[in-house]
Specification:
It contains 14 helices and 33 strands. The protein is globular. With 528 residues, the protein is α/β, with parallel strands linked by helices. A hairpin with a 2-residue loop joins strand 9 and strand 10.
Length: 528
Amino acid sequence: VAYVENARKLLEASRRGANPFDGATPEIPKGSRLESGSKEFLDSEALGLPHLRECAFVLVAGGLGERLGYGGIKIALPLSLCSERSFLQYYIERIMSYGGDAPLTLMTSDDTHSATLAFLEENNYFGFPRKRLSLVKQEKVPSLSDNRAHFVCAPGNPYALETKPHGHGDVHALLHRAGLPERWLAAGRRWVIFFQDTNGLVFHALPAALGESIRHELAVNSLTVPRRAGEAAGAIVRLKYADGRVITNNVEYNQLDPLLRATVQPAGDVADESGYSPYPGNINALIFGLEAYARQLAIKKGAIPEFINPKYSNAEKTKFKKPTRLECMMQDYTLQLDDARGVGFTQFERHICFSAVKNNLPEAMAKAAANLPIESASSGEMDYYAQERWRLTRAGAVIEPAERRTIAGIPLDIGAFVALGPNYAPSLGTLLQRFKGGRITRSSVLIIEGPDILIEDLDLDGALIVQAVPGAKVHLRGIQVRNRGWKLTELEAGDVCPEELAIRGYRFEKLEERALIFEKPGDYLIEA
């Protein structure tokens, strides 16, 4: 009954074109904008890195890869074909690289729970201790057919309801019901970090973002990127109400423009002198102070304000294009807070922390034609390599610039394929100590795996793989590698291949490589 009543109220507001933030005056929020690689960035990273072991991590993993053209769960997709790591393996190994005994919780759904558990068991949990990993499963809610919030029968079954996911905002209630925040507090955790299923770059920004949370004593810290005016992405906005309430929250793009036009900016959602919107773009990665978070969950039981977003098929707004449902978003947690002083953001350049993987090839082509972020499996992989190359250039490497190629209709910047293992460079500051100078050609492949490897003055034109077990202290100095390397080859029509290749439109041919494998602890020096 409560579900239907709330739905009817929200549907009526939607039909009237009401904005959930009506009555608020938007302001630019308070936060930090860090230039990646700057002294401020490195200082914040050095402050935050040792404290990541004191965090709890929560991965929102309720999605299938159907939109991508992938039949499995999205977290099982390879982040990188070169390293052959899935997103989930990469995340787990990143968390383990911080040391300590940080726990990880995955929010699954009816669609993904069994497959996620099977994937973990098939891979022995990627070495992550099982007692530190929890799964909480999200339930679905009934679909609605009209403005009176009538339910919809399941296809082919008049005795069952059609249901849909309720949104990732359910994660807060699920954590509360499982008693996890209290358990984390008792174990000495101080923060909880929420992140999404297919954004492999976000871990590059976490050390510095946590450093900013510590420096500014933030109860809520949203990781953000510069947002293009009009971009279909939410923005972090400070909202002041006439009754004195002040909140800092995400405002969706379709709500931001009319809110600005009705209040402080008649031109609407437009760029400032920087060329971007003054309101930072939300990427749905959040750092919460755990003590305040647990206290708030005890009050609200994790319930998050709901919204509804029907797509109407007529001008009178009486008919839906397809059934809708009530939803909630995890970032709307801040709508409930009485005090906005501890709510802020940390902004990074997009290339450092955000490259989502969600669009199939036709959708990606349309995004490219509109000059919007492509967000395909191929662009996500190439953005990953580009970020690894950028980090090596900060460490003094000279790398040939990438070249633009169109593969499967998608324009991609193809450069050296660099994959640095999670335990090799958990932060930029760490990398600056472990890689010094060198030269790498555009077509090269470089894969480094191991926690104690120092590489100086590498000269690479081909493929090089360096792997070292913990306890192996490896020093490569001035070595030169010349071989045929690996070749990125575009798939041809009719090629039979796994889905993870088909959704990219290419494969790698391993022609020749040099592998330096150190399987036993000890000190190793290899020189030119």
